[in-house]
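Sharing a chain and its predicted structure for anyone who wants a worked example. Both blocks are below, sequence first, tokens second.
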Amino acid sequence: MANIGFLPPESFTVRRTSPADTLVRSLLCAAVFLALLFSFHPFASLAEPLEVTEAGDPANQIGYSTIFITLAAWCLLHQPNRLILLLRPVLIATLLWFALTVATSWDPSLSARRFALALVTIGIAGMVLLLPRNPRHFGDLMAVIVLIVLIACYLGIVFAPSLTIHQATDFAEPELAGDWRGVFGHKNEASAAMVVFVFIGLFVARIRSFGLGAMIVALALPFLLFTHSKTSMAALPLAFIVSVIVARARRPATGIAAALSVVVALNVLSIGSIYFGPIRSLIDSIMSDPTFTGRTEIWKFALDHVAQRPITGYGFSTFWGTAQVVYGMSGQTWANTASHAHNGYLDLALTIGIPGAALVTLWLVVLPLIDYYRSPEEPSSAPLKMLFLRICLFAAYDSCFETIFTQAGALWLILILAAFGLRFLAVSRVSD
């Protein structure tokens, strides 16, 4: 994962790290993850909408830029050419397609700002992987970081519930009153983070300390339950079970097919229920709410607009919340006021077109599965491989009902980090 073991020994000179170097790596890694997980608006009140200027969110811009510049400065002194391993053809094609959809966007300036933030996020995800010396060091860092966030979430619930639990006075979605969100801005962000924390706890239990890993899991699971997020609570065991199937599959093709078939099945059962009578009848018979808590109307609205601009979409990360949608389409349906499509694949098709959605799915869902099987079977890398695999699977399944792929922030960065991590493991080796 760092200059010792994550990269091919024939390509780079291996040097022992000093205690001072280890301390710098640890502090920088912890600072990056804590800043992103707490976000630059922690414990925000939702009673009023967040003030964002026409030029974007200054706190996010300054925060992400500072992290990027700091990591870039560190990498310049620590063999930055290691990042070349991440520049695979699919990633290059994806970024070029992003740039094309910025040029064709119905709001080019907004798309350009969000594309710049996406580039910074992708850069951070790649560079931060170079900081830990090895998987055990990574496990130590993740344990400390996750425990700090969990403790802050629980302290917030006790001492500042109005800022950590959704309230009936929230400006948007007052119906979520009572759902826990902790330091995060929304219960769905909190629930997804708790799932990732559970997987990190399992990773820590295998690579460092069973007791410490169990403590993380024991703290994350109850918080997940009190977010009342059905999607994350269902995606957690699903990703766990499929990860075991993938790990035990004798043939890579079998494991990859099993993992991807779940994505297809979830989308067919959900979005397919809008158009196909037999599927709708099946959903009606097994679910008390066949609309998936109002998602079907949003999906129908989104699909209708994908059909109007199927190739380049409406512009990189640009559709929901724009004046054209909120005010220009207000006479059609309430779905125009949604913040996203509640389906990451559909959101991708809306914003960067069907080709762009296919590229991102290939980059962040399909290729990580292939990389999992391409990486060598080494005891030292097995827990790390499993952690990255479970994060990618969870994101793939959660995105069938929520939106991780197009939401800039810590969760999207963690997904990219997991995909990059599997890529590094597939082209290198890990040492203790």
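Comments welcome. The chain has 17 helices and no strands.
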